[in-house]
Design brief:
Blueprint (H helix, E strand, L loop, with lengths): L5 H4 L12 H13 L5 E5 L6 H13 L13 H7 L6 E5 L6 H11 L9 E6 L6 H12 L5 E7 L7 H4 L3 E4 L5 H15 L2 E2 L1 H11 L3 H15 L2 E2 L1 H8 L4 H12 L3 H14 L3 H20 L11 H10 L2 H17 L6 H15 L3 H4 L16 H14 L15 E4 L15 H10 L4 H5 L7 H8 L1 E8 L2 E8 L7 H15 L3 E7 L6 H22 L1 H10 L14
Parallel strand pairs: 1-4, 1-5, 2-3, 3-4, 6-7, 10-11
Antiparallel strand pairs: 8-11, 9-10
Helix pairs in contact: 3-4, 5-6, 8-9, 9-10, 9-11, 12-13, 13-17, 14-15, 14-16, 16-17, 22-23
Length: about 575
């Protein structure tokens, strides 16, 4: 006897046997029972969700010898002929191979004739989106006003390609993808009827591989039966599908929970030796983080028969919700970026190392990661402590623009040694250092008037006013008042600190506040320019030759034309 594949042997023959399409079944059942039968139906959905099956069941409902109803008998000649695909008045047309206008005209010419041995002549056009534009135009009139004994059933996996003029003439039903639980339940029912042994996790792997298609699930089940010689086990299905062993993911998550970077790389090396797919591994890893997050938020969602349910509950306790969300986001971005990596191994391992690097507790528990350098604390005078405390709030506020305008009494920016590394001072003796500092008279404008730095660092030096400076333990602390926060950038403060450290021969730290700056180098420069301009204008007006020209010829000096000699 010829073997009949499961997808054909267990094709549903009644509405009650359909799985996962209750919304379509309900609408068609009500229409048949109330006699409100439309002349054209459009079934849309991905492959293997029941479009052709629904078409055949609907054709039986319309042509059953016991009358039009939502429950055909399945025993009369019409029902048995439709099930066997030999009913003369039920015509299935494949639009992928019969897509021209000539094929459509031939079908429409036959539609005008009454059915041979049935109540209705039913035309089922599969993959209708493959028809040409002319073929669609040819069927519009007949599709809108067909003979009373003709019914059209159109099916497609891509409804976007169907003209709106055709959509408007049909009742459209969108068939959903099959839920994994529904596929598992249906497969277990069929295998019980076939007396074939199976493991429930193996069926879940088959359902996951089917991606919402019941026909694909049944085809994979046929393959698994042949591969496993009659007993479908998780190991056999995993080997057959070439899917990733979940044990690798469990080990990766265990190493991540313990911040064991070496262990994670060992797992990646083992996967490389077996030639496993790294994108598939990242995809599965993202699924694990999703289920762990669900286990943390809705623990009752995890059923005991779900694969790795115990491990999911364990990881839900080991990771915080914030960590799970972070790792999920890193995994998704790693999956997107893996094609840009030098190779799959580099992209996969960098994603794993990124999880370790950004883990909130990585620096505390992982001895393999470098520890942050200790920040040297400085004991400041009582008045300076408030400045330091306030400025640290600004630097750690999380704002991408920490230097914003504040009242004069508030410190706007702080660059401690932890934020901007201080340059090593030039090797000078303690006596020399104290001598240089002691000799300085505190004249900030004179100090920075001809400073050899450029850019914002020069503007910071020349547009700020020195509020005060202190010397503590061989380190100088400057408090500068700036008229604007735009020049108080971290890089500008760092460059100015570096120059001052080289000038004074000791470490230097700078803090800034926003306010009106008066005693600045730029003000002195402007005042000197104004004085030179006034001196030049006075000299020009007092010149005897200019006075003679003015009195003798009425000459006038053009305002703004006098420029001082800068030499």
């Amino acid at each position: 006897m010829t073997y009949l594949v499961l997808a054909r042997k267990y094709r549903p023959k009644r509405f009650q046997d359909l799985v996962g399409q209750e919304h379509v079944v309900r609408a068609l059942t009500n229409a048949l029972e109330t006699g409100r039968i439309h002349h054209a139906y459009l079934f849309t959905g991905t492959r293997g969700v029941g479009k052709t099956t629904l078409s055949r069941i609907l054709a039986k409902c319309l042509n059953c010898e016991k009358g039009v109803s939502a429950a055909p008998c399945g025993e009369c000649e019409a029902c048995r002929a439709i099930d066997a695909d030999r009913f003369v008045d039920y015509i299935e047309l494949d639009a992928a191979s019969n897509r021209s206008v000539n094929d459509m005209q031939q079908l429409l010419e036959q539609a005008v004739y009454a059915p041979t041995a049935a109540r209705y002549k039913v035309y089922m056009v599969d993959e209708v989106h493959m028809l040409t534009g002319h073929a669609f135009n040819a069927m519009l009139k007949t599709l809108e006003e067909p003979p009373e004994y003709v019914k059209f059933i159109l099916a497609t996996t891509d409804p976007q390609k169907i003209p709106v003029t055709v959509l408007s003439r049909c009742l459209q039903f969108n068939l959903k993808q099959m839920p994994e639980d529904a596929i598992v339940s249906h497969l277990s029912h069929i295998l019980d009827m076939e007396s074939i042994g199976y493991e429930l996790p193996a069926l879940r792997q088959l359902a996951h591989g089917a991606q919402g298609s019941m026909r694909d699930a049944l085809s994979l089940t046929d393959q698994a039966i042949a591969y496993a010689a009659g007993n479908i086990t998780s190991e056999a299905v995993q080997d057959m599908l070439g899917s990733l062993d979940q044990a690798y993911l469990v080990r990766l998550l265990e190493c991540l929970a313990s911040h064991n970077g070496a262990g994670m790389l060992d797992v990646a090396d083992e996967m490389a030796s077996r030639g496993l797919s790294y994108p598939a591994a990242l995809q599965e890893l993202s699924t694990w983080f999703n289920r762990i997050a669900i286990a943390q938020s809705v623990p009752a969602y995890l059923s005991d028969d779900m694969a790795q349910a115990e491990s999911l509950r364990q990881f839900a306790q080991q990771f915080t919700p914030e960590e799970v969300q972070l790792y999920y986001d890193i995994t998704i971005h790693g999956l997107q970026d893996i094609e840009l990596a030098p190779d799959g191994y580099a992209g996969f391992t960098m994603t794993l190392l990124r999880m370790l690097a950004f883990s909130p507790s990585a620096g505390q528990d992982n001895p393999q990661l470098p520890k942050p350098k200790a920040v040297r604390q400085q004991v400041l005078p009582e008045g300076e402590r408030g400045i330091q405390s306030e400025s640290r709030k600004v630097m750690t506020s999380g704002n991408s623009r920490p230097f914003q305008k504040r009242p004069v009494s508030r410190v706007d920016a702080d660059v401690p040694s932890a934020s901007v590394p201080m340059p090593d001072p030039k090797p000078v003796s303690a006596t020399g250092t104290h001598h240089v500092v002691a000799q300085w008279d505190g004249d900030w404008p004179a100090l920075v008037k001809d400073i050899p730095v450029r850019g914002l660092a020069r503007q910071l030096a020349q547009q700020t006013e020195l509020v005060r400076y202190t010397v503590e333990n061989g380190e100088m602390l400057f408090l500068l008042r700036s008229p604007t926060s735009a020049i108080c950038t971290v890089s500008a403060i760092s460059r100015l600190s570096e120059w001052l450290a080289g000038h004074f021969g000791c470490p230097v730290r700078i803090r800034t506040e926003i306010g009106k700056a008066e005693n600045t180098a730029s003000r002195d420069v402007r005042e000197a320019e104004v004085a030179r301009q006034q001196q030049a204008e006075t000299a020009m007006r007092n010149d005897s030759y200019i006075q003679q020209l003015a009195s003798g010829f009425g000459a006038k000096i053009v305002e703004g034309s006098i420029k001082p000699n800068l030499n």
